[in-house]
Amino acid sequence: MKSTSWLLRALLSLLVLGFVAPDVAVAQGVTTSAITGRVTGELGQPISGIQIVVTNVATGRTAGIITRADGRYLLPGLQPGGPYRIETRGIGYAAQVRDNVQLALGQTADFSFSLAQQAIAIEGLDVTADRSSVISAGRTGAGAVVGQETIERSPTITRDFTDFTRLVPQISTGGAGTQAAGRNNRFNNIQIDGAVNNDLFGLAASGTPGGQAGARPITLEAIQEFQVVLAPMDVRQGGFTGAGINAVTRSGTNNFRGTIAYFGRNQDLVGRYNVPGADTAAAQVSDFSQSDLAFSAGGPIIRDRAHFFVAGELSRRSAPQGFVIGGPGVVVTAPDAQRVQDILRTQYG
Hints:
By secondary structure, the protein is mostly beta strands. It has four domains: 24-138, Immunoglobulin-like (Sandwich); 140-251, TonB-dependent receptor, plug domain (Ferric Hydroxamate Uptake Protein, Chain A, domain 1), CATH 2.170.130; 252-318, no CATH class; 322-349, no CATH class. The protein has helices at 2-20, 148-153, 334-348; strands spanning 33-40, 51-56, 62-66, 72-78, 81-89, 97-103, 108-110, 113-114, 142-146, 171-172, 179-180, 189-192, 195-196, 223-230, 244-249, 257-266, 289-302, 306-318.
């Protein structure tokens, strides 16, 4: 009885840690964003000791760093997305603020500042920021980021986030699986929050575990965004010669938010196309059914300090398994199949 109580207390502690401190988990791979830049004076001279404060408006989390002697700074480990608020603070210099900053997965965005030697607010300053500068002078290598808005608005039958890789020009889905730059899908590397989710046996066209049975490694409701890179000049990404598909999951914010989605189809929703060169239509698709029910919920536990997020999906699919009986080179002959059918009818009804 004591061992059972100790086990229950341990599981409860792990659950609380998972809700309160989701950001302390460290995994291999690129799961964050970063900002960098240089702070100078009115004459272009570097300014050291300026505090750069970054605030995630959605979650209330803040991070900061001090500029070096050359005026440069680098702040890594930021959660992809936003919106972010970037503010400069320094004694003897006017503060500057940049709002509505969005950061893409794996992006190192450049934000430089030129500060005036007066502690007053600068009026009439127009700041223009590129919201999706994934491919820029600061990055090399072909790639793209598929954001949450694209995932929510684009149609999909499989409800697998790897299905959206076809939006990347270098990706082809005409053959078996997702092929990047002509490479077989077995040379891709799929990661979720830095953890590898590859099909170790290379049997599934999706490249994920359970892909042959139509299973998905994670519900689409939990994906915030994902990145597709090909031959990146980034030492943090590797282990593939095809495409690197790197996804990050959503987290709770200061606002309660939930989603629910249902997807269903059967043989009546499948069209019949005309056979080329003939006046007859293709055979009717056999009876099948597919239904998916997904949900997500997130919100604050303690505002600006702790948040929760949960998502799940229930899938059901029923489809006939077709194979040829009695043809040349087929192991199962017609008499064998008839005997199996008779046994199923007489003994099992």
